[in-house]
Write a structure and sequence with these properties.
Strand content of chain A: 15-25%
Largest interface: A-B, 65 and 67 residues
CATH topology of the largest domain in chain A: Aldehyde Oxidoreductase, domain 4
Shape of chain B: elongated
CATH architecture of the largest domain in chain B: Roll
Radius of gyration of chain B: 17 Å
Strand content of chain B: 5-15%
Mean pLDDT of chain A: 97
Strand order of the largest sheet of chain A: 3-5-1-13-10-11-12
CATH topology of the largest domain in chain B: Ubiquitin-like (UB roll)
Mean pLDDT of chain B: 84
Low-confidence stretches of chain B: 1-38
Radius of gyration of chain A: 28 Å
Oligomer: heterodimer
Number of helices of chain A: 17
Number of helices of chain B: 6
CATH superfamily of the largest domain in chain B: Beta-grasp domain
Number of strands of chain A: 28
Distance between the termini of chain A: 63 Å
Number of strands of chain B: 5
Distance between the termini of chain B: 27 Å
Helix content of chain B: 25-40%
Shape of chain A: flat
CATH class of the largest domain in chain A: Alpha Beta
Number of domains of chain B: 2
Structural class of chain B: alpha+beta
Number of domains of chain A: 3
CATH architecture of the largest domain in chain A: 2-Layer Sandwich
Largest sheet of chain B: 5 strands, mixed
Low-confidence stretches of chain A: none
Helix content of chain A: 25-40%
Chain lengths: 715, 210
């Protein structure tokens, strides 16, 4: 079959793809010049603040805003939820104010008088027996095969356990929010911190009845999103309304840190009682799970249990979503996967221990119960990760028998994710002076999107990365999808490749007469357009582009489009944690984290590795530290700040070994997203390593010293 | 820390993080290692100003800025909201994460908990003052080289903390780096790049001095 013209170049023909290339917006960020939404200052800009409800569930019985409306500097006030409204989580919006300074806006907020009638609430869901039926959604049950028979088989080894991970937040360093203004009565311009530049304008359009074409969304840099920044949000819409009230002046409305942690998204909790069985040789035969969790009032998404090992022949599962009075769930990097992974891989690790099996061998053996396309990937990655972690040297059966109070252990986990490229358009322009621009309404979350676009265009046109100008972050550019679910890299690399090939071919057509060869005999290599196999018939890039006369070449590449091989989906990934646990203090220390990760064709190894490093560190955060701690008495969040909503610091993370699976078997799959997969396994790998070290399971994350010590008392 | 006395006496409450002190604090439990030290003057010596706006002069990156500010305005907010100096970020807003780090008289400071009026008479350096004419400071160049940034929102704070740290510790050990930068937090997880970046920047800064 003839090679499709939109395929990736063969390995030997790649000069940039798959190399280690510095991110192109690195200097802007490192020098502080990069302007985030929070950094936008506009002439006469007002500052917006929101009065938030302190109760988890209450009815507003009285509201007096008169003093605030007349306070110095106040230019607008809007009641968001007034008398009679029922508030259903702490921090929900009540009144918004815009004033000439932050201080004036804060003063005005303090002058608002609200009376609430507190109502019953639920904020703690870990003990399902204590959750009232009214807070439980109807349970979802599924059954495959005959689990009862499988569990009672005398040849089966059965392990039972309880596992879980609590509600955590996104804790984006740049809080949610925007600057918004009305350039005229029928237009809105907003600098919003968003993962959806081309999409989010629709919400402003609908809410404010402004034609969508008159909404300009700009986001050049975003200070973290992780799945929580797709919407305009109520505070964004209210900022636009306040701006209108103030004659169109810009209003900056960025959440305070406490609001960010209270209302701007959570990752749902997941707890489960698991029963799992295997034959004496380790082959899994049966799974039973009773799970529950909350992601706010709407409960939580479906947790894919059993994780990865979907072909276990006998399955029974029941999931109960709990409605709790906390700020609503939002997609959190790999939605539902880290929870499912923690529960499943912990349960399997406990079963392997009961079977006296090495867990790496156990997973290797059971890889056949994973989706077909991943079986070999997992086996490759288990081998690679075990080699890098020196598994054979350092692993021991459960419980470190060495003397001393510091115990060392190793744990393994694996994961999967889709990551197919999103829809989008890349407009590629080659000017007669030789300058090149790729333009699209995309966004770079810090994943390296700009860099990937530049690499693909430069590779295709035979140029270097700095020769390509990448213009993104504005919804007036050609549509590109939102950045969620690891869909960006596949989307933008495919659209850029198609657009660049079409633009290049148009350039070939324009210069073919000068080179005395048909266009399909030309190639773009090393800054030249030349005749294939005849390097003497060549023009420099600039000379070639000059042949265009006054007219640039422009082409728009779409994704999806012709030739499906540019991007695909479905990755694996294996991680191994090496930890030390101080059995006197209960403190868990990470010695080393190893990741073997595939993602098809890697465009930029440097930024790809950064994604994995970052995911491992984020994994350390939620494995050891993070929890949205709710007070059962008041229903309020006890740690809406960064002293007590803890993230790992630079001294808490240990060493890393990241291995990207590339080459034959991987590259030809095309580009697949990488943002989510590596953040899935750290919780399970670290929990398993701790169990291996101390000989007993700490059932729930985070693995805080108190829980480690409590678990040790059961030994 | 010695303070210049070219201004009328003001409350001595420059909150700051002192890396020398910070180096003595163990990193544990994922919380910061840096310290916030507050040295308040005895009340009978304090001069009271406000609550209305008062004239304030801030010397930032060698340039004097004259402002009228309420005394409650922080140095960070004065820079970000009044002077459009936005490299320092507001993240935790209470001296935990270091995204607001500026350097005052050579010491790294959490500008989110430093009042603008208290920063008068001192030499304030922000990240904008570190790269002139588009030329990257060695710390910045090392951060780019080692991809020690993702979303980049914590990066200016890290760069400033790192610069102040290396000025004090030109030959840092890995352990010193982990303690010295323990007062800054990143959410994307860029520490793996920051560690080698700091060591490389140390080499480059020493080479530049030699």
């Amino acid at each position: 079959m003839a090679k499709c013209k939109y395929d990736w170049p063969e390995a030997g023909e790649r000069s940039l793809i798959g190399k280690r290339i510095k991110r192109i917006d690195g200097p802007e960020k490192a020098s502080g010049r990069a302007k985030y939404s929070y950094d936008i200052n506009r002439p006469g800009m007002l500052f917006g603040k929101v009065l938030r409800c302190p109760y988890p569930h209450a009815k507003i019985t009285a509201l007096d805003t008169s003093e605030a409306e007349n306070a110095p500097g106040v230019k607008g006030l809007r009641v968001i939820q007034g008398v009679g409204k029922e508030i259903r989580w702490q921090g929900d919006e009540v009144v918004a104010v815009a004033a000439v300074s932050e201080e004036a806006a804060e003063d005005a907020i303090r002058k608002i008088k609200v009376r609430y009638e507190p109502m019953p609430f639920l904020v703690i869901e870990e003990d399902l027996a204590k959750v009232p039926d009214t807070n439980k959604k109807p349970a979802v049950e599924q059954k495959v095969g005959d689990p009862d028979a499988a569990f009672s088989d005398s040849a089966a080894t059965v392990s039972e356990g309880y596992y879980g991970t609590p509600v955590i937040t996104h804790c984006c360093l740049e809080t949610h929010g925007c600057v918004v203004e009305w350039p005229d009565e029928k237009s809105i311009k907003t600098w919003i911190s968003t993962q959806a530049v081309s999409v989010v304008g629709g919400e402003f359009s609908t809410s404010l009845e402004v034609p969508q074409n008159n909404i300009n969304v700009v986001c050049q840099y975003i200070g973290g999103g992780f799945g929580s920044k797709f919407q305009a949000d109520r505070w964004g819409i209210e900022a636009a309304r306040l701006s209108k009230m103030a004659g169109g002046k810009a209003v900056k409305m960025m959440l305070e840190r406490d609001s960010e942690l209270m209302v701007a998204g959570v990752r749902p909790s997941a707890f489960a009682r698991i029963k799992v069985a295997a034959k004496k040789d380790g082959t899994l035969t049966a799974w039973r799970s009773e799970s529950w969790g909350t992601g706010g009032l709407s409960g939580a998404g479906t947790i894919p249990l059993p994780y990865v090992f979907t072909k276990i022949p006998n399955l029974q599962k029941k999931h109960t979503a709990v409605a709790a009075n906390i700020g609503a769930a939002r997609a959190w990097r790999a939605p539902n996967h880290p929870q499912a992974c923690l529960i499943t891989l912990s349960a399997l690790d406990d079963l392997a221990a009961k079977l006296n099996m090495d867990p790496v061998e156990f997973l290797h053996k059971n890889a056949e119960l994973a989706p077909e396309g991943l079986v070999n990937t997992y086996r490759d990655e288990l081998r690679k990760a075990a080699e890098l972690a020196e598994w054979k040297k350092y692993w021991h059966p459960r419980g470190d028998k060495a003397s001393g109070h510091v115990k060392r252990g190793l744990g393994v986990s694996l994961h999967t994710w889709g990551g197919r490229g999103h829809n989008g358009n890349a407009q590629v322009t080659i000017q007669p002076d030789g300058s090149v621009e790729v333009r699209m309404g995309s966004q770079d979350l810090g994943t390296g999107t700009r860099t990937v676009i530049a690499i693909v265009a430069a590779e295709t046109l035979g140029l270097q990365v700095p020769d390509v100008k990448v213009t993104i972050g504005d919804n007036h550019y050609p549509f590109d999808g939102a950045s969620g679910g690891s869909t960006t890299v596949g989307g933008v690399s495919s659209s850029t490749r198609r657009g660049s090939i079409d633009a290049r071919d148009a350039l070939f057509a324009a210069v073919a007469p000068s080179l005395g060869a048909p266009p399909d005999q030309l190639e773009a290599v090393g800054g030249h357009i030349r005749v294939k196999g005849n390097a003497s018939k060549s023009l420099t890039w600039k000379q070639a582009c000059a042949k265009l006369g006054a007219k640039p070449v422009q082409a728009t590449g779409k994704n999806p489009g012709l030739c499906k091989g540019l991007a695909s989906e479905g990755v694996g990934g294996v991680q191994i944690a090496d930890v030390s646990v101080d059995t006197e203090t209960g403190i868990v220390k990470i010695n080393r984290l190893v990741a073997a990760q595939d993602c098809g064709l890697v465009i930029d190894v440097k930024t790809a590795e950064s994604q994995v490093y970052g995911a491992l560190i984020m994994g350390v955060c939620y494995a050891l530290y993070e929890q949205k701690i709710m007070d059962p008495i008041t229903g309020r969040m006890l740690n809406p700040n960064m002293e007590f909503y803890k993230l790992a610091g630079i001294g808490d993370i240990g060493e890393f070994m990241v291995h990207m699976m590339t080459g034959p078997g991987y590259d030809e799959r095309g580009v697949i997203g990488l943002g989510e997969p590596p953040v899935i396994s750290p919780g399970a790998a670290i929990s398993n390593a701790v169990a291996n070290a101390i000989g007993v399971r700490v059932p729930t994350l985070p693995l805080t010293p108190d829980k480690v010590l409590a678990a040790l008392q059961q030994v | 820390m010695r303070r210049r006395r070219d201004k009328p006496r003001k409350p001595e409450a420059l909150s700051r993080r002192d890396f020398l002190k910070g180096a003595g604090v163990a990193v544990s439990g994922g919380i910061l290692a840096g310290q916030t030290a507050i040295a308040a003057a005895p009340p009978d010596q304090a001069e009271f100003v406000g609550p209305g706006e008062v004239p304030v002069t801030l010397r930032i990156n060698g340039q004097s800025h004259h402002l009228n500010l309420e005394p409650r305005v922080t140095l960070l907010d004065a820079c970000r909201n009044r002077l459009d100096i936005t490299g320092a970020k507001r993240v935790c807003d209470r001296a935990t994460c270091g995204a607001c780090t500026m350097v005052i008289d050579g010491k790294p400071v959490y500008s989110c908990t430093t009042l603008a009026i208290e920063a008068q008479g001192h030499n304030i350096e922000t990240i904008e003052g570190l790269s002139r004419d588009g030329h990257l400071h060695p710390v910045m160049a090392a951060f780019v080289e080692h991809d020690a940034q993702q979303c980049g929102f914590c990066t200016p704070g890290f760069v400033m903390a790192c610069k102040a740290f290396l000025d004090k510790h030109p030959h840092p050990t890995r352990e010193q780096v982990e303690k010295g930068l323990g007062g800054n937090l990143c959410r994307c997880g860029t520490y793996a790049g920051i560690r080698p970046a700091v060591l490389e920047a140390a080499n480059a800064m020493r080479a530049a001095k030699a």
